[in-house]
User: Which sequence fits this backbone?
């Protein structure tokens, strides 16, 4: 009798794990978080200090046979201070970001870890900079209207809540000053909630 109960338990666990990993699934939810922007400068006369920003938006996840596709849409704010030692350009860029992520998940019963990577397209909606007269165009970042990045990260799922940590490497170069250039790199920490799934 004990052997039969043990075998039945193993079969139920295997069926649950298989359904969680192999059968088609869909999830949709909301997410919000913080980011830390990284703008490198090639100029010895200028220094860039990273500042925290935010992001808020929605995500969807379609999965089957152990893999998933996760498109997202969110509003994000990227900030940096560019200084020549006495004057500061406080630059904040707001954009609509669209990551298209591909990944895999391990785990069952609503708990698991995810790993993913994919491209991101960013559309600038606001470019706010406070350049002083002394700095002028030397520190002004010519942030493009459309930018590309590559994203990689990992996440932890606990029932309907997900926590993600990811890195975005800017593929588009941003120009500033006299023929100087930089890339926008970000670290994102977000919390997501699954509104519905099937």
Assistant:
């Amino acid at each position: 009798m004990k052997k039969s109960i043990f075998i039945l338990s193993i079969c139920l666990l295997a069926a649950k794990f298989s359904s969680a990993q192999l059968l088609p699934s869909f999830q949709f939810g909301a997410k919000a978080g913080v980011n830390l922007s990284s703008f490198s400068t090639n100029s010895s006369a200028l220094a860039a200090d990273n500042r925290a920003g935010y992001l808020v938006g929605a995500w969807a996840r379609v999965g089957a046979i152990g893999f998933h596709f996760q498109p997202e849409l969110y509003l994000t704010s990227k900030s940096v201070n560019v200084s020549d030692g006495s004057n500061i350009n406080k630059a904040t860029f707001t954009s609509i970001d669209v990551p298209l992520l591909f990944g895999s998940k391990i785990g069952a019963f609503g708990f698991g870890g995810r790993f993913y990577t994919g491209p991101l397209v960013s559309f600038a909606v606001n470019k706010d900079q406070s350049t002083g007269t002394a700095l002028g165009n030397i520190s002004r970042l010519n942030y493009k209207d459309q930018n590309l990045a590559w994203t990689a990260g990992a996440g932890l799922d606990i029932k309907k809540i997900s926590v993600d940590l990811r890195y975005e490497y800017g593929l588009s170069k941003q120009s500033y000053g006299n023929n100087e250039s930089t890339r926008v790199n970000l670290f994102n920490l977000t919390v997501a909630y699954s509104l519905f799934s099937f």
Q: What stands out?
A: The chain is about 10% helix and 70% strand. The first strand starts at residue 25 and ends at 39. The radius of gyration is 22 Å. The beta strands are 25-39, 47-64, 67-83, 88-108, 111-130, 141-142, 146-158, 161-170, 173-176, 180-197.
